[in-house]
Amino acid sequence: MKAHDGMYIGGAWRPAAGRDTIEVVNPVDEQVMGHVPAGTAEDVDAAVRAARAAFPGWAATAPAERAARLAALRDVLAARKDEIAETVTAELGAPLAFSQAVHAGVPVLVAGSYAELAAAYAFEEKVGNSTVYQEPVGVVGAITPWNYPLHQIVAKVAPALAAGCTVVLKPAEDTPLTAQLFAEAVAEAGVPAGVFNLVTGLGPVAGQALAEHPDVDLVSFTGSTAVGRRIGATAGAAVKRVALELGGKSANVILPSADLAKAVNVGVANVMSNSGQTCSAWTRMLVPADRYDEAVELAAAAAAKYGDRIGPVVNAKQRDRVRGYIEKGVAEGARLVAGGPESPREQGYFVSPTVFADVTEEMTIAQEEIFGPVLSILRYEDEEDALRIANGTVYGLAGAVWAGEESEAVAFARRLDTGQVDINGGRFNPLAPFGGYKQSGVGRELGTHGLSEYLQTKSLQF
């Protein structure tokens, strides 16, 4: 798609306040494919004022009508699925088949789920002699990442609109074209002017202005824990609501009774998906000591199949960051069994699918989020040891448990300090709450739990 040279504010594309622009670079060939405006605090203020003006009317709109607009949005996204996939592939570098199935396909499911929830949700209930109302929080500032550019937008905007909130979106600067395409879809779906607004720009400028704006009632942010802390501190000073989906270092726990080959192969696929740029990726594989060598051999063989099947990481900075972690893993004594820091191609921001063995829990690669196609395999002695290792990071976003009997896996998963766990390769559920424990964030996305983040409660006594 051709980049817009303005901001989508108040239902129309408007010129940006400043003249600075952001280059959009294709990570496969490193070529500039377009420019978007670098938004300023003035642009953010205009967008927030438009959202504030639109809020009373949208909040008063019947849930059935809000549901109808979301259903229309779902249909537009479905009709433009090929264009969305091609845009994400160009901006992010994801293989086209993956973009079609995941980057374009999942947002259609999520938008549809909120169309249904908006129509069916109990925004009013009787509790004894009280009537309890669920009302929209107000104006939402949504700040989204580049790794799943459309999914993260829909996971914030759809529940906010279902709740009756209005939104100002500041997307990641690496993937702004996908956000502009979404703004076009919102307009095509008939969402009233000002209900959704888009400001492209840099995080320290436009993102910070949005988080600090006094007329923003809730900030929903997905990104690094470091930035999440700053947004949380800013919001706390203003007693402002936040929803923070932050980092992860998820454990894939393979219990002794599990089908080892299946667990290892699915685990490697999980880490390599989206070139490792997934906050919930199972980047620590925990294996019984007596089957460790077998697991390492299986993982190395599985990783070798992904050499030409994954795309690049998003930009040069991210490529160098991931390579730096690989080099640190080697320096701290981990053993490379697949991949390494050398680039597999002369052009593009590619990183080799990498697997480390002999990783110990105190190593940097076992504690910090790498956000690339890098797997660490750790051994454990018994289940208590596995539990201690699995829970031994500051994160608690996701994870997996494998066992011969589902009940055994569930019993172990209930003891994990993490927000979401897949049992024996459980499938993605767009209605299941997603979010973390500890420093992985505050709040939940998806389903009714995601909708509740954008509601506040009022009770009337009779």
From TrEMBL:
Residues 13-459 form the Aldehyde dehydrogenase domain. It comes from the Bacteria. The keyword Lyase does not apply. This is Aldehyde dehydrogenase family protein. The keyword Oxidoreductase applies. One of its GO terms (molecular function) is oxidoreductase activity, acting on the aldehyde or oxo group of donors, NAD or NADP as acceptor. The active site is at 245. It comes from Streptomyces populi. Keywords: Oxidoreductase. Belongs to the aldehyde dehydrogenase family. InterPro entries: Ald_DH/histidinol_DH (IPR016161), Ald_DH_C (IPR016163), Ald_DH_CS_GLU (IPR029510), Ald_DH_N (IPR016162), Aldehyde_DH_dom (IPR015590). Pfam families: Aldedh (PF00171). Gene3D superfamilies: Aldehyde Dehydrogenase, Chain A, domain 1, Aldehyde Dehydrogenase, Chain A, domain 2.
